[in-house]
Amino acid sequence: MPQLIITGDIHGHLPTWKKIAAFLEPEDGLAVAGDLFDTVYTKPGGEYDPQAILDDIKAHRGPIWLVQGNCDDPDFHKAPLCQAFTFESTRFILAHGHKPLPDLTDYDVVIRGHSHVSQLECLMGKIFINPGSPIRPRGGHKGFIRFKGGILERVTLSGDVVDRLAL
């Protein structure tokens, strides 16, 4: 059964992207809540390599949902500000979080990034997710969110599950 890896705010840091990509199987889904590349404020060099990350994303065979973050230059990689998708019969809305969200009525799970603060909770009958930032976290969680079999898990970069929420 494929899983969905949910991440964001990697800010072009190639070693961090590689750690997350290691959890992806070819058929898995990937949802990125923006600021994957950080091509607005940071210049290439050292461990910062947005082109290598983009090449990896393009090579992934599973479904990918990616939105533009406030640090992602649309001239480098164009993506929508908000994207809706369905995975395992669950309706998701994906946005970076620096712009207002649309009406959430039709969605089961709301994914936002931007704040670098990890969130996995049920509010007003919806699940709200922020994967946090695996490179510059605020609040301690350095990892991503995994969705499989109706279960959402907050996972560290070493693969430890630190929190679970069933839909």
- The dominant shape is globular
Which sequence of strands runs across the widest sheet?
Answer: 3-2-1-9-10-11
SSE run:
EHEHEEEEEEEEE
| CATH topology name | Purple Acid Phosphatase, chain A, domain 2
The major beta sheet can be summarized as: 6 strands, mixed
Total beta strand runs: 11
Helix amount: 10-25%
Distance between the termini: 17 Å
Question: What would you say about this model in short?
Answer:
Helices cover 11% and strands 32% of the residues.
Written description of the protein model:
Strand 9 and strand 10 form a beta hairpin. Helix 1 packs parallel to helix 2. It contains two helices and eleven strands. With 167 residues, the chain is mainly β. It has a single domain, classed as Purple Acid Phosphatase, chain A, domain 2, CATH 3.60.21.
Structure keywords:
167 residues, mainly beta, Purple Acid Phosphatase, chain A, domain 2, six-stranded mixed β-sheet, five-stranded mixed β-sheet, 2 helices
Helix-strand blueprint:
Elements (H helix, E strand, L loop, with lengths): L3 E4 L6 H8 L7 E4 L17 H10 L4 E3 L15 E6 L2 E6 L13 E3 L7 E5 L2 E5 L12 E6 L2 E6 L4 E6 L1
Parallel strand pairs: 1-2, 2-3, 5-6, 6-8
Antiparallel strand pairs: 1-9, 4-5, 7-8, 9-10, 10-11
Helix pairs in contact: 1-2
